[in-house]
Amino acid sequence: MSFFCLLWVPLFYLLRRSFWDGKTTGGVWALLLGSITAIIQFFTGDLISPGGFGFSRWLFGFVDIVSLPVVLSLVIYLIIIIFQGNSSGVDFANFALLWLIPIGALRALSWSSGSDPIMLVMAPILWTALAAGIPFFINRLMDSSRWYTSAFSILCILALPAAAAAVYWAFFAQQTWLGFALLAVTNVPLVLSFTQAAKS
Known about the structure:
Layout: H1 2-19, H2 27-44, H3 55-65, H4 67-84, H5 92-111, H6 117-143, H7 147-172, H8 176-199
């Protein structure tokens, strides 16, 4: 399972690159800043202390396990784009996946002693679901001129990280069917992004 946590994100990145052609910006920054973030969290430990099966466990999943690493990478990439003032070659998913590679490597190291499949298997799957799913709606938001499409995209951008943390919570609470249902929903935008790429 540790090897899965170590290799899943880079293998998914290579798979995605086979669908998307062209030069994208920010790759070096993604690896550098992702490595710095991973090292800092490795030495500082978790930011949230989970207290059972309630909201604190969901918040722990959101901040320390699943959602915040991806959301942070997308926010940083947006800041880089704004300061560069150049929108050519922008690929939020590419940046997020590269950011997650060093994070996945150090998480595989720190989580290996526990051999917890929720951490070592489910978390990397959720990272890639968010790293590909949120940019799918960001692109829809950027390309849309209709208010209702924009509103729906914003709602999905906000809901996906919350749903991913709920997947972690559900499996931790042994709500297996709920966990798989939420996992399927969380991965729908990822599947749609690949379907759209295959058609283009």
